[in-house]
Amino acid sequence: MSEKITKELALELYRKMVLCRKFEEKVVELVNKNEIYGTTHEYIGEEAVAAGVCSALRNDDLLASTHRGHGHIISKGGDVRYMFAELLGRIDGYNKGKGGSMHIADVGIGVLGANGIVGAGVPIAVGAALAIKIKKLDKAVISFFGDGASNQGVVHEAMNMAAVWNLPIIFVCENNQYAVSTSVKYSLKIENISERSKAYGFEGKTIDGMDVLEVYNNSKEIVDKVRYTSKPFLLECKTYRYSGHFTAEKILNLNYRTEDEINYYKSICPILTFAARAIEDGICTKKELDDIDNSIINQIDEAVDFARKSKSPEPSDALNDMYATEYVGIPQKGWV
Amino acid sequence: MRNIYYLKAVSESLLNEMKINPDVVIIGEDIRYSLRGITKGFIDIFGPDRIIDTPISEAGLTGVGTGAAISGLRPVLEFQICEFIFFAFDQLVDQAQKLRYMSGGKLKNPVTYLVASSGAKGGMAGQHSDNPYPYLLHSGMKTVMPSTPYDAKGLLVSAIRDDDPVAVFLPVNLLGTKGDVPEEQYYIPIGKGEIKKEGDDITVVATGHLVKTALEAAKELEVKGISVEVYDPRTLLPLDRELLFKSVKKTGRLIIFDDSNRTCGFAAEVSAIIAEECFENLKSPISRITRADVPVPFSAQMESFVLPDKEKLLRAILKNFKNKGD
After folding, report:
1. pLDDT in tens, A158-176
2. pLDDT score at A3
3. Bridge-based pairing state of the strands B142-144 and B235-237
């Protein structure tokens, strides 16, 4: 490891990545057992991005997430007990079972919301950055989006507005190279999405999103700069998702990626490569990392246990939480 | 009391709210120079941090409004042209309107959408003449449409102070009309309709600029011995059902006079509510006077043909009494 990092930071990055991985592995298990209703979009393979970016943030910084958001929320400090409770549709979930996987939101931990619509969270993140600037707060905003979202109209609108208003926001493109089944080789005529930053008038950079240290070091520098200069930045992290677009995709047999390609990216797993380097460079010991693995396995088991014991909502709770200022007669129910 | 323009009443209300609450900001296109005139001169008072011109990015600016609102501001977004909401549809109905619910009540999104000139002004053709509020009502968005300068000033205050998204439709045909408006700031509660004229024989539910038209028709019918009650919901969602039921129970007859499309429109909803709740009180079938389900055509002759107007209302009322069985 050429860059010097502290043991504390190395363990923190490792812990976040493993927590993301183990969380998602448990999610897949629970989806397959139908214990989680519906489906989810797993983050497996992309952990270095969320762990690296979010470790460069302060607690009160904000982020807007995507449909593949579990890793972002965990890395920002989300509590996996409340996340599992949400995924199981229980009242102790972050959003009382009303949102599920794609809509976890809690401003308390700086999460403006995951989002089920590709690209839709980007202008919302810009709005948060606008509020920060107007209120003269010392915060930065991260707007996660993917290679697919990079082609949505609102993403372009949002980046342009962030540029003309000089807002403290980092657009983090998680380029996992596929929008569902569509390769970036088909959907883009440029090599790097970060090149688009020039068109808006701010800086951009493409980095290896499989290397957590590269992500962390770049994020640290960029977050500090954005916070100080109040100018947006587009950081593209090239990464890869190991599983399908969503949990059950494999039964569809789409075959848009080769086994060789998937195996290559598995061979450069961000967790395994980071662990090997950290041990080799003497930053930490194998035992220390094994201890983290074991504590996370326990943490996940306890979180699932917590979620399973949490109560299900009353069916009629479905009519609550629609409005902050309530009036008689709304929302209407659909029957008499 | 002063007699001032509708547009002035809106402007004054907004100005007062901005003075009272530093979190109120306005976001929109051409609002610094103020094409519509609502925010004229505001830039000199509040500066560029609170009067925020945007590039032509209707969907994007709507998302910006949401992000700013859930992060502590109380933005008012101005849509210059009512059809711009179509551009912003995902951000309005799938983001802004759903975020609080999907978050289990954790997010608060106090944003106001000022749809600054809704409806057909004459000669603006298919893409500048809509009254697109039914799309928003369908999503559960609180929606008001004041019919007088007095109501406009008071309802805008409630919309801005409400902690949820509220759409405020300002009918283009009313912006240049005058009415009595107090100088001090006051509010009219959301969800409260008003009987604009009492009558005994038939209830006309009229919205927006058609309230004025309904009142004129009611006056003409007085000489023919027909006493028309004009109910102005003022808020389209939540609808003041109690006041409406009371009126229909009194008159036993109902016409809905609304300038939006017919199919699944506001008039359709009111008809259904009354058919469900007051069927036994009705002496004759409910009828709707709405727009035809076509885009507004350019030519003046065709334009007036497709829009609801006084003649169509008078015809419907007279027909209702011709058919009466009592």
Report:
1. 999 999 999 999 999 999 9
2. 62
3. antiparallel
Give the H/E segment covering residue B52.
strand B51-53
Q: Buried (b) or exposed (e) across B149-171, using 16+ Cβ within 10 A?
A: bbbbbbbbbbbbbbbbbbbbbbb
Which of A 170-199 lie inside 8 A of B, CB atoms? none
Q: Tell me how far apart the alpha carbons of residues A286 and A162 are, in angstroms, rounded to a whole number.
A: 44
Cβ atoms within 10 Å, residue B294: 11
What mean pLDDT is predicted for residues B37-51? 97
Are the beta carbons of A105 and B55 separated by less than 8 Å? no
Q: Is B128 a catalytic residue?
A: yes
For residue A160, give the chain B residue with the closest CA: B55
**Residue A292 and residue A300 in contact, taking contact as beta carbons nearer than 8 Å:** no
Q: How far is B266 from chain A (nearest CA, A)?
A: 15
Q: Confidence class of residue B325 from pLDDT cuts 50, 70 and 90?
A: very low
Q: Please give the share of chain A, as a percent, with pLDDT higher than 70.
A: 99
Res. A251 pLDDT band, cuts 50 70 90: confident
Tell me what pLDDT residue B326 has. 47
**Count of other CB atoms within 10 angstroms of residue B179:** 20
Two tokens at B244? Answer: 């409406």
- Whether B103 and A161 lie within 8 Å, measured CB to CB: no
In degrees to the nearest 10, what's the CA dihedral of B157, B162, B167, B168? -10
Nearest partner of B61 among B69, A193, B47, A171, judged by Cα: B69
- Point out the residue among B71, B90, B103 whose CB comes nearest to the CB of A120: B90
Q: State what percent of residues in chain B have pLDDT above 90.
A: 95
Tens-place pLDDT, residues A23-75 = 999 999 999 999 999 999 999 999 999 999 999 999 999 999 999 999 999 99
Q: How far is B300 from chain A (nearest CA, A)?
A: 36
* Cα–Cα distance measured from residue A313 to residue A9, given in angstroms and rounded to the nearest whole number: 40
Strands ordered across the beta sheet of B142-144 = B51-53, B24-28, B74-79, B112-118, B166-171, B142-144, B235-237
Helix/strand/coil for A324:
coil
For residue B208, give every residue at least 6 positions away whose Cβ sits within 8 Å of its Cβ, in sequence order, or none.
B118, B119, B131, B145, B147, B169, B171, B173, B174, B258, B259
Q: Which token pair is A300? A: 């996940």
Q: What is the pLDDT of residues A71-112, one digit of tens each?
A: 999 999 999 999 999 999 999 999 999 999 999 999 999 999
What is the residue whose two structure tokens read 């490569």? Answer: A273
Q: Can you tell me the distance from the alpha carbon of B268 to that of B256, in angstroms, rounded to the nearest whole number?
A: 9
Q: Give the global pTM.
A: 0.96
Q: Give DSSP secondary structure letters for B54-66.
A: --S-HHHHHHHHH
For residue B224, give the amino acid letter. K
- Write the residue in B67, B110, B162 that is nearest to A125 by C-beta: B67
All residues at 6 or more sequence positions from A334 whose CB lies less than 8 Å from its CB, including other chains: none
User: Which residues of chain B have a CB within 8 Å of the CB of A82?
Assistant: none
Q: What is the pLDDT of residue A336?
A: 82
B47 Cβ under 8 Å from any chain A Cβ: no
| The A233-238 sheet, strands edge to edge | A111-113, A62-64, A141-146, A169-175, A233-238, A203-208
Residue B240 three-state SS: coil
pLDDT value at position A219? 98
Sign of the CA dihedral B253, B259, B265, B269?
negative
Mean pLDDT of B222-229: 96
Residues comprising chain A, all counted: 336
Say how far apart CA B289 and CA B308 lie, in whole Å: 6
